Write the structure tokens for this entry.
Amino acid sequence: MRARDLAVEYQSVSVGSDALEAARLMAEQKLPALLVLDEHGAPKAILPASQMVKVLVPAYVVEDPALAAVVDEQHADRLCQALAGRRVGDCLSGSAAAPPIADPDDTALEVAALMARVRSPLVAVATKDKAGTHLLGVVTASHLLHELLGKAGAPSTPDA
């Protein structure tokens, strides 16, 4: 099976998308991450849900987790205000690496190795030419596991 066969449509946002809407999309669809596209529609980064959570948590609480215990629920409910007026690009970490991109002809094992090497919950599948990068879809870790486990067949049962 090739990357093009494994690729599926997946939610993506642009660097200029509203951060609060992106967070809602993650929450409503229970996505582990979003693929972030640049202004030309090419994969730019992967925004893990954990990074969005980090944006919500005040820096002083990240630095001293004991302070989280003293913040009352009324203030905790206001955490989402940290995303108001921000763009997805503002939520990417300064060290955000380019997303892993598989060639459509890569094998499932090549996609799995890339995913494991960069520790990413998803890999973009795209073609590249003089005009730029053209996204075909995404391979998620859960979809890849499903496919690989399906190829392994049903577990054998010992004779009784």
In short: Strands lie at 12-14, 33-37, 43-48, 101-102, 122-129, 132-140. DSSP finds eight helices and six strands in the chain. The longest strand covers residues 132-140.
